[in-house]
Automatic annotation (TrEMBL):
The keyword Amino-acid biosynthesis does not apply. It comes from the Bacteria. Residues 93-273 form the NodB homology domain. This is Polysaccharide deacetylase family protein. Residues 1-26 form the signal peptide. Coiled coil: none annotated. Keywords: Hydrolase, Metal-binding, Signal. Pfam families: Polysacc_deac_1. InterPro entries: Glyco_hydro/deAcase_b/a-brl, NODB_dom, Polysacc_deacetylase_ArnD.
Amino acid sequence: MTKDRLITRRKALLIGAAALGTAATAGTERLLTVDDPTRSVRSTAVIQGPQARASLRASAFRLQPLTDGPARHLPARTAVRHEPIRSMPGRGRTMVLTFDDGPDPTYTPGILRTLRAYGVRAVFFVCGEMAVQHKDLLREMADDGHSVGNHTWTHPLLTTLPRSRIRAELERTSEVIEDGCGEAPLWFRAPYGAWNRTVFRLVAELGMEPIAWTRDTRDWTAPGTRTIVHRVEEGAAPGVIVLSHDAGGDRSQSVRALRAYLPYLLDRGYQIALPARQFT
Ligand SMILES: [Zn+2]
């Protein structure tokens, strides 16, 4: 059901998404613009480590909790950005691999196996409605040291939704991630790359950073394993964030492609790393 819905939405929104979300030309300096520099400094001080996080008061802006467990502790609010992060420059020959829309029991385990074989960590931007059904995979991601990011609950085009719906999409998903991984997500990626001011503000409220991508493999069009491999290898450069998918349709090409381009990147001297939180 979920996969079919994702596919249908993806087809329906393809044209709109291309117009909305692919302007990947913003300069890094714009990415680091903040509304209030003093707040970002404070964020730097409190975001470090579980002890600091545990001292934060429970959020007053949550929806009703999913369970009656102990009070949750959100990461500190982050500064509101005006653009998502689209690359991770300045860290040497480092690249970031990201996998969206899962977890999916058919494809995610294969991705995890390959990453594990090479001792590499990646970011999985999960959808809440998938994650809530596959918490075992969330746990596996966390146990392997991967970062689990928030990709909304139902993968909607957020720019068409009222603020209350956007908030619910983000909050519910953060809660499921925290339940499954033991830690609330630090990163958010908008479906279809569709951002607006409301999304940026809510992402900051929930303690996440908005992140997009540098290199889109367009693997969801199933262009063939070799094409996906070529797109990653051709686009390889320091700071590049690669977008792939481990759910939302037949992702067997994405699984196979990773087995080819990952050793290639490592042989070329790239380090595959998790994104670093950047505060100005
Ligand atoms: Zn997606």
